[in-house]
Write a structure and sequence with these properties.
Order of helices and strands: HEEHHEHEEH
Helix content: 25-40%
Radius of gyration: 14 Å
Shape: globular
Strand content: 15-25%
Strand order of the largest sheet: 2-1-3-4-5
Number of helices: 5
Length: 158
């Protein structure tokens, strides 16, 4: 993991490229290729990639693992001011965890029209029922992120 990477003019695209590398790691391990990282004060403080199959843990999504590691690194579950980058639009579990962690912003690649909780299937990022709002921005490197997922599932079906 490349925690501690300092932002020297890095953009959302740069961080998403790193998330894609993490997604490749998930795929090498037989997991759905999703990667995530968290940036706070222009520094990568945590990374994660999908591991629910290998860990026998349905909550081991890339975002959840990155949130756990970020909380440990900051010695707080509150991550105010942080941005979470992830290759696939977060599900309801992950989006709600970001709300509880007070993530400021989530940037994602591919849209998830069936389960996405940041505007596709539904939107928990701005739900009036929750006590925090997360600024959600999707579509960064969406073609690359979507292609990786599509090829993974085609290989499983074929």
């Amino acid at each position: 993991m490349n925690q501690g990477l300092i932002n020297k003019g890095l953009t959302d695209v740069d961080y998403m490229q790193r998330a894609l590398l993490l997604a490749e790691e998930a795929e090498r391990n037989g997991e759905v290729p999703v990667g995530a990282l968290i940036v706070l004060d222009q520094q990568v403080i945590a990374e994660g990639f999908n591991q629910p199959v290998s860990s026998h843990d349905p909550t081991a999504h890339a975002e959840i693992l990155a949130l756990r590691r970020a909380g440990a690194s900051q010695k707080s579950y509150r991550l105010a001011g942080a941005t979470l980058y992830v290759t696939l639009e977060p599900c309801a579990m992950c989006m709600t965890a970001m709300v509880h962690a007070r993530i400021e912003r989530v940037v994602f690649g591919a849209w998830d029209l069936r389960q996405g909780a940041a505007g596709s299937a539904f939107d928990l990022s701005h739900s009036a029922a929750l006590n925090h709002r997360v600024d959600a921005f999707g579509g960064v490197l969406s073609d690359e992120c979507g292609r990786m997922l599509r090829l993974f599932f085609e290989s499983k079906r074929g």
